[in-house]
């Protein structure tokens, strides 16, 4: 998997999955157009952290301070102390005709002991909410294909 190439050693991880009644190509296109604003939970949690609802899109995350690397080489070379690297992966597999298992995994690697200490404290409080956001994203994608009752 691509996530194994980008961040094989990591300090923290989170994994969530859901079955969606749609073929993997359609689910993939939905992920490519992902906007976190479709989830009330995500909007609430972002506001609680003092983040703009503009941060609830991939472009918004970049404006919030997340660094987007243009090449994998840039990502691997980045080793600035007091930072952490994070990767977020989606995997899709058709479990039967018209049913896709969609999974998400997030990995975080702290780049020095200080960032590890601070991130450990941060993660203690934030991790349950991080899981809520990822599950909300998965349910949002599922609703696009199965409707609000899903």
Could you please describe the fold and organization of this structure?
The structure is a single chain. By secondary structure, the chain is an alpha+beta fold. It has a single domain (2-146), classed as Alpha-D-Glucose-1,6-Bisphosphate, Chain A, domain 4. Helices cover 47% and strands 23% of the residues. A three-stranded antiparallel beta sheet has the order 1-3-2. The protein starts with a helix and ends with a helix. The mean pLDDT is 86.
Percent of residues in helices: 40-55%
Largest sheet: 3 strands, antiparallel
Terminal CA distance: 29 Å
Q: Which strand order do you get reading across the main beta sheet?
A: 1-3-2
CATH topology: Alpha-D-Glucose-1,6-Bisphosphate, Chain A, domain 4
E-strand count: 3
Mean pLDDT: 86
Radius of gyration: 16 Å
* Content-based structural category: alpha+beta
Dominant shape:
globular
Short description:
This protein is α+β, with helices and mostly antiparallel strands and 150 residues long.
Features:
globular, alpha+beta, about 150 residues, about 25% strand
Topology:
Layout: H1 2-6, E1 12-20, H2 24-32, H3 40-48, H4 58-64, H5 72-77, E2 84-96, E3 99-110, H6 113-146
Antiparallel strand pairs: 1-3, 2-3
């Amino acid at each position: 998997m691509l996530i194994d190439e980008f961040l094989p050693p990591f300090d923290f991880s989170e994994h969530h999955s859901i079955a969606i009644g749609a073929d993997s190509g359609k689910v993939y296109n939905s992920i490519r157009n992902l906007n976190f604003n479709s989830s009330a939970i995500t909007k609430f949690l972002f506001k609680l952290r003092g983040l703009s609802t503009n941060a609830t899109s991939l472009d918004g995350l970049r404006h919030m301070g997340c660094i987007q690397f243009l090449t994998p080489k840039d990502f691997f070379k980045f080793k600035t102390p007091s930072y952490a690297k994070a990767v977020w992966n989606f995997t899709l597999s058709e479990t039967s005709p018209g049913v896709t298992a969609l999974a998400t995994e997030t990995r975080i690697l702290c780049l020095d002991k200080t960032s590890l200490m601070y991130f450990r404290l941060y993660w203690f409080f934030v991790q349950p909410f991080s899981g809520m956001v990822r599950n909300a994203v998965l349910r949002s994608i599922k609703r696009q294909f199965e409707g609000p009752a899903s």
